[in-house]
Write a structure and sequence with these properties.
The chain is of the alpha+beta class and 189 residues long. The chain contains 2 helices and 11 strands; from the N terminus they run E-E-E-E-E-E-H-H-E-E-E-E-E. Helix content is 16%, strand content 34%.
C-alpha cells in the first residue's frame, strides 16, 4: 500500500485465487518491488498435497528508478530496468524449484549457482536464450522477453505506464496471460 507505483497482476480473464507475496524495500523503507500470486500457491516440490501438478503465475512489479540514491545519501545504486524484473522473476521461480533427485543438502549450492545463472541471463535479454512474446498490458499489446526451462517459464517487459513487470509460472501457459494494474490490493489478501 506504501508503494508509489502501480502494482500489476493478471487481468480479469484470470478468475482463480490471488494472493500477495514478497515486498522488496530499500534501506530507507521505500517500496522498490513486489509480487502477487495467481492460482495454486507454489511449493518447491511442484505439486499439491493431492499429488497434482501446481498451476500458478506470479507477477513481479518493479518501480522504474533510473537514479537510485543509497540510503545514506553518499552514492548512487544501479538503476532498475527490465533486466531487474527478469532477474527477480528468474530467482523467484528458482525459490520454488530444484531437481527432484537432488539431495536437500546440495540444494543451497545448486540455488546459488542457478541464481548467478539467472542474473547472467537477465543481463543479456537480447541474447539467444530469450525469445519475444506479445501480451496485453492494460489492453495494449506489449513486448516481453520470454524463456522456458524445465522448472517453468519467465518473462519480463516494461508497461506503457513506466514500471517493469516480470512474471514466472508453472502449469499455466504464458501465451494466454494478460496483465493489468491492480485497482484494489485488498482482492489479494
Amino acid at each position: 500500500m506504501r508503494a508509489d507505483f502501480p502494482w500489476y497482476g493478471l487481468d480479469g480473464a484470470f478468475t482463480g485465487p490471488r494472493w500477495l507475496m514478497q515486498v522488496g524495500t530499500g534501506a530507507d523503507g521505500t517500496v522498490e518491488h513486489g509480487s502477487t500470486g495467481h492460482g495454486d500457491e507454489p511449493s518447491a516440490r511442484g505439486e499439491l498435497a493431492t499429488g497434482e501438478k501446481e498451476r500458478f503465475a506470479v507477477v513481479v512489479t518493479v518501480a522504474s528508478n533510473p537514479l537510485r540514491r543509497s540510503s545514506d545519501g553518499t552514492g548512487v545504486l544501479e538503476a532498475t530496468s527490465v533486466s531487474s524484473a527478469a532477474w527477480l522473476a528468474g530467482s523467484g521461480l528458482l525459490a520454488y524449484s530444484w531437481p527432484g533427485q537432488m539431495d536437500h543438502t546440495l540444494r543451497d549450492d545448486w540455488l546459488d549457482q542457478q541464481t548467478e545463472a539467472a542474473w547472467e541471463l537477465a543481463d543479456d535479454l537480447a541474447g539467444p536464450d530469450w525469445s519475444t512474446l506479445s501480451l496485453p498490458v492494460d489492453g495494449e499489446p506489449t513486448t516481453f522477453h520470454y524463456r522456458e526451462s524445465e522448472f517453468g517459464w519467465v518473462l519480463a517487459g516494461s508497461t506503457p505506464g513506466g514500471v517493469h513487470v516480470g512474471a514466472y509460472g508453472r502449469g499455466m501457459s504464458a501465451y494466454g496471460l494478460g496483465f493489468s494494474v491492480i485497482a484494489d490490493l485488498a482482492a489479494y489478501e
